[in-house]
Amino acid sequence: TNTQKVPKHFPARSRHVQLGRLIAANQMIGGVMGAAVFLVAVRQAVAGFLPFLAWLAMLSLYGLAVRAGLSLWRDEPCGYRHSLAIQLCQLIQLVTPMVGFVFSCGAQVTLSYSKAASNLGAAFTSAGFIQLSGQSPFSITVNLVAALSALWLVRAIRTVHQSPSKAAEPSHGVAADGA
Length: 179
What we know:
Mean pLDDT: 83
Structural class: alpha+beta
Low-confidence stretches: 166-179
Number of strands: 4
Shape: globular
Helix content: 40-55%
């Protein structure tokens, strides 16, 4: 492969693994919760092709969250990239009178704004919808847990899982193979 794992003798490795596993556990638990909710929802009337596609898209995101979390837990390179995609999907929750997208999967600390109120909230939840038309008032929510997780994942991808040319170069006076 073209990736490099953190050498086992690096003191930062245990902290790196712990943070990765925390994000992974959050995604896996949230993904299982979300998939369960959406599988139960299929029993309700999903009338029409577009609502079915929206339901299928949400179910797929929850499935990807579980798979990405499992790969991240195992410290696999694809786990970092897929987990980053899941965190970015959770970053902004936007609802307008015409369109809306909400996806949450696990722990979240949110800053919300709407005409009615602005607030700070915290929850452990799995919720999602895609709205193509409706009567919902405007609201925007930023998930701070997703933002911090995404930043950590970007940093981990850049520093730990380097390109082949950088992986061959010694880093901090230590050979790239960890010797």
